[in-house]
Here is the input.
Amino acid sequence: MASMGKFVVISVACLVAHEASAAFCAQDGSDYSYTESVSSSPDTRTVVANGCPNHPWYQLNDRKPYLNTWEGHVTYTMPLYPQFVGSTTSPSSGSPAIDLSQTGSPIGILFNGGKLFSPYAGSETGQVKNYSTSATYLIGSTFDQCGCFTTLHFGCHVPPHCLLNQLGQTSGSHSPQIGWAFDGFPVYGPRGPGGVMMQTCSITGGTYGAAVCTDDCGGYYQNDGTIDEYYYRYYIQGTYDDGDSCSNPGCTSPGADYYPNTPVCFGGCCPSGVTCKSFVKACPTGGTSSKGYGALTPTAPTINGLTLSSGLPANSGACSCHGLSADNCTSSSWATSASPWTTQEKSCPPTTTSSTVTATSSTVTTTSSTATTTSSTATTTSSTVTTATSSTVTATSSTATTTSSTVTATSSTSTRTTTTTTTTATTTLRSTTAPGSVTVTKVKGTLDLDVLNCTMFTEREGAILAVAAGIASATGVDAKSVLVTLTCSRRLSSDDLSVRRLEAVNVAYEITIPAGSTITAESVKNAIVTSGSAGLATKIAAAMTAAGITDIVVKVNSISMPAVEIPVSDAVASRVALVAMLGLWMWW
Ligand SMILES: *[C@@H]1O[C@H](CO)[C@@H](O)[C@H](O)[C@H]1NC(C)=O
Ligand SMILES: *[C@@H]1O[C@H](CO)[C@@H](O)[C@H](O)[C@H]1NC(C)=O
Ligand SMILES: *[C@@H]1O[C@H](CO)[C@@H](O)[C@H](O)[C@H]1NC(C)=O
Here is the structure.
């Protein structure tokens, strides 16, 4: 009596990417490594850092910082004698300067091993123009007890509380230097001369060049040698706490008065002969840049009695790994939509031993990945979906095994960083009409979804059915004629590393339109195009709600142009092809 003549095939294939050593930074901060040296041929400062902080970190998103070996993210070279291309009289970022408002890769390196990022929050939110479009506002709730975030990078967009504390920050004096910008100028904490909390002159109303306030980049031109022997430097502007708090997220996230918290443009350029980050443009020839330093004898700095040539000691003032906890912020100015992750994870090593945390389910390699396909078994227990067209698909205790399946690991590259996609699992579901119906046309295409946790999504009972039902609902076809394959991937591009908190789900769908159907392939195709991302997201959300899945939010990122296929109109041939493709038929 169960669904007559209906069948469901579920195949799950696991793809194990061959990985080069990819390990996460130890959560107690013990993996930190930082060295700094200077060279005169060419005049270069070189920092080598492995991306791990010198203090415990706390995960407020789905990512952990890698002990990284990524190309371009290990050795940083910058000008030893910085050259200035900004203006000494105009605070405007429109004056000659290097724009960073869409730069998603690190713009500097901090002494705690953290990478400095501009206020840009990533391609999803677009060019940063003001506080409400900045990372601090949009994702400030994911900045941890030290003011930094853990993604694939450990990086900072606001004053790093723990580092400031370790380097001797007090309220009445100039902040310590906390790192280097990649144009070669120093980066300080939030306090300028006399301990003043630095802000832009446009906010304070001060006269740039005369008052103690920064230009619109977040930099301060002052060449009298009272701060340092540079003529220009940056401040990480904004409020901070003591640096020993265990609360997560760090609750003193700065408000609009301190925008930009980190440089949104550079006043320096790349002198000839020095290898700089690509976005640090070459200094113009013909004297439009000026010397950015005075009586300078460049070395690796010594700050608060700590010499940076071999990095800082572990930060004993920071909250211990075991003491870290999630907390509620009573006051914060960040976007409410960016609530902290609920799946916070803590994996502190035992207190007395050193240990290595290795990658578990996700892997990143710098080389092309080799895929191994394994066979596995999937079991579903009674998942039911009701669609808007009121068709019901019921899968009861079905088990399916694939003997062979094709899983493709794709890799994409960005201009700056080798990027690897790791596929964790592919889930395929087919719910179709009884064999015997003649296949006439198919509409095929793909959707890119974003979810918080792809594994959780694909493993959730009914989720794949809901995707199929959502597509069916949007196109007017019966849900039983929609074949859906879900593939998890991690798409990493250097421009998105700091912000991509969501995981990608690739949905490949295939809609079979039987002979004699009143719905045509063209109308199905048009319905998908017309629905668009927003329309499909609404339909999938409705189907998920109908399936009782209310805790997973699905965003439709993009839709491919559906393709209409007209295969051999022979039922037997089609079925044989299907069997070959899917490996198994399930009947009940
Ligand atoms: C910030 O910039 C965005 C984008 O240009 C703009 O829509 C918004 O009104 C600005 N917000 C403020 C407070 O100026
Ligand atoms: C945050 O506050 C809510 C409501 O008071 C409480 O239920 C929750 O447990 C708190 N969360 C944390 C992590 O303290
Ligand atoms: C994602 O979900 C899976 C399955 O529920 C879980 O094992 C994993 O820890 C989750 N990942 C994160 C980062 O929360």
User: Anything to note?
Assistant: Residues 20-339 form one domain. Residues 521-546 form the longest helix (26 residues). The longest strand covers residues 439-451.
